[in-house]
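Could someone model heme C with this protein?
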Amino acid sequence: MHRFSVYLFACLILAACNKGKVEVFQDPMALEIPPHFPQPHYNFDGNELSEEKIELGRKLFYDEFLSRDNTVSCASCHHQAAAFSDPGQALSVGVEGRLGKRNSPPLFNLAWHPSFMWDGGINHIEIMPLAPLTDPQEMDITVPDLLQKLNSNLQYRYLFEKAFGVSTISDYELFLALAQFMGTMVSGYSKYDRYISGNVDFSSDEKDGLLLFRDHCATCHQEPLFTDFDFHNNGLDSVFLDNGRYLITLIQSDKGKFKTPSLRNIELTYPYMHDGRFSSLHEVLEHYQSGVQHSPTLSPLLEHGISLTNDDVEKIITFLLTLTDYAFINNPKYSSPD
Ligand code: HEC
Ligand code: HEC
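Reply:
Sure, complex below.
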């Protein structure tokens, strides 16, 4: 054997061994956690990530077949280009043009959420899809009907078999697959994130805006996820059309409280608030400056509104625009599979 080929042979063996090692020790798939994020609330325990399962979740998310009359998919109200919110729609439209009761929130960093919905009425990502699937204003299908549809579809039978090794599809696998796709949608690469990791600088207005934000807003819209995941009344109304958190807890002091929304990608997710009442960030800031309505459950932080000059408002908005994550909205991993 030539010297060269001995060398080559040795390299090949080494490469093969290394490859073997990597395959044995490497976590096959892990949630990608931006370095400055805390640990997620949901870590896929009992729902180990796999490419097949995530892909299946993605297909389900984008498929109108999941609704009663094959007209509405999750993506009908959650658009990637708008960080999976429903831009321009105060309330979203479900089957037969039925109008929902609340504004569609964006979807990202869901693995960090301890609860879901504006009122926190759902406490686990693995049961989350049950609500939109069965809501008459959204997809309006019963679980048995949906399972019957899926089980009579050869392509889904094949994909569930490949991902979960089951020959009959149950709601268990359906929810796990959707949880894998939703739970792995991570938005943590905006200009703000790159600034925090020291990779890019802020303009002086952006820096001022961040400091003003930290002074006036960050108690509730806490960095780095821009929410404390708690429920507050931020003074939208003195008489509530929607009682929010109270509908879940039936505790008087929860009336008119809603989950603090994340402000990541806020530029894209208009209109704003649980009922989509404000169409621009200027309107939102005007509300905090001079529109706060008093009621017994108003957050003490907002008792006197938030005192901001017009220049402060412009700077805060300039800062909020750094939270748009173009990598997220353009990531092909989250786009429609068709
Ligand atoms: C007809 C529009 C519509 C459809 C279809 C729809 N959603 Fe939603 N989604 C909403 C609205 C509106 C809310 C807020 C509801 C509330 O708070 O009461 C919401 C809330 C959510 C939330 C909670 C987010 C948070 O921040 O708490 C998740 C997760 C979600 N939807 C996922 C899905 C999935 C998965 C599907 C498909 C199975 C789906 N949605 C279908 C409109 C829709
Ligand atoms: C007392 C806690 C609290 C403080 C302080 C606060 N917010 Fe909020 N914010 C909330 C809550 C709760 C909501 C959702 C209210 C609802 O929809 O009923 C909200 C909603 C918003 C929304 C709309 C988000 C969406 O997706 O619809 C924006 C934008 C916003 N706040 C920005 C700010 C800014 C900027 C400041 C500081 C000037 C601020 N907030 C201060 C709690 C707070």
